[in-house]
Design a protein that fits this description.
This protein is an alpha/beta fold. Helix content is 41%, strand content 17%. The chain contains 14 helices and 16 strands. The chain has a 5-stranded parallel sheet with strand order 5-4-3-10-11, sandwiched between helices. Strands 6-7-8-9 form a 4-stranded antiparallel sheet. The chain has a 3-stranded mixed sheet with strand order 13-12-14. The longest helix is centred in the last third of the chain and has 20 residues. The chain is globular. The chain starts with a strand and ends in a 7-residue tail after the last strand. The relative contact order is 0.13.
Length: 463
Amino acid sequence: MTLRLFDTYTRSRRDFVPLQPPAVGLYACGPTVYDYAHIGNLRTYIFEDILRRVLDFNGYTVTHVMNITDVGHLVSDADTGEDKMVKGARRTGKSAWAIAEFYTQVFKEDLRRLNILEPTIWCRATEHIPEQIEAIRCIEAKGFTYRTSDGIYFDTSKFPGYGHLARLDSTGLQAGVRVDMGEKRHPTDFALWKFSPSDHQRQMEWESPWGVGFPGWHIECSAMSAKYLGTFFDIHCGGEDHISVHHTNEIAQTEACHGTHLANYWLHGHFLHLDEAKMAKSTGDFLRVQTLMDRGYDPLAYRFFCLSAHYRAKLNFTWDSLDGAATALQRLRLATDSWGPPGRVDAEYMQQFTEHINDDLNLPRAMAVTWDMVRSGLPAATKKATLLQFDRVLGLRLTKGQPPEEAVPEALMTLVQQRQQARAEKRWKDADALREQIKVAGYEIEDRPEGPRVHSRKSRPEN
């Protein structure tokens, strides 16, 4: 059964044909680590996890790369305002480097709680400054840049195909727009390198052929994806908000330098809505995985909830809908545990399930097949074996011995993340003191390769 995916670049469903089968290169835009991720952000990462699992399910060998944006993402997508990392540092009273480490670890913990597979490769923007400078030099050599008083910009007027991904009509936009720091020739032009303000000592800045400063947000993904996956790879994905600016600019940069539009397939997930409004950090009021846990929910109930809608469809969050997802998840777990040892997989149900997941990741229909199979008259052993195969894609941890995620108080998780930061900075005495605080509060912490795990002493799992 051929896997078909909706490609935003062509606005069509296409048979998935890897460039070098069975290998697949997958790049997913990661978080800007200046604040916590909200559950709307995490809907996108659940969709990308389903994509990766479906690729695995189809026998492909996936190299999954995800960036960590820890510099260069300004408050405005028009390249104005301050770096979000600096803004976060001012809000918290910590250095930009410290909050980057803190929120990176929190994000990784959120992925673990949601059973999202870790990328094959993590890459931080601040650890790839030479690659970004080299990418800008390439674009400059091809004649696509100009200099302003505040940075080096990409001249979109010299790139005829600019905006194809988003179907932008750049010729109809007003040119000559003034911006807060310097002047752009065209409203769609974007920064490749920003100079450090002379009246302000930045926390993150580097020497470059153009002057001291820092890279623009878009260049990091072009540079790092090229390093790890090549200048033309299989799949690039992210949220729908990336289509009109970030991914459009990534394509322009890469095509200007290398002559490719970066990825063969472009996939984008839809926003999560809360009371019919887009969930966003800018409102200052957003829900986190920790918020759900504080209310007593297993984070995988939220994952289950996300499977109820197609990744390209609107999904509206309510507490009632999460209650329904939690109940349904518990029913699946109880059924799985009651069926005893697994037997042989049912070929007919497996075929139906595979057809739906290979139809542009149609999880709502795949879930309908799942429930049909659960309610069927098949032998219990067959049901269990089939459901466990489905769970390779669903990622709901339905096997026996996988208890619901323990709800750990937010104050405790803050101590855990502070300890991680102290360990990263080799402040071992501080790390030991924080471990003791965690212990006094009735919890134990385990340091594992994938990150720390914290449990109340009464619920500490066996190894």
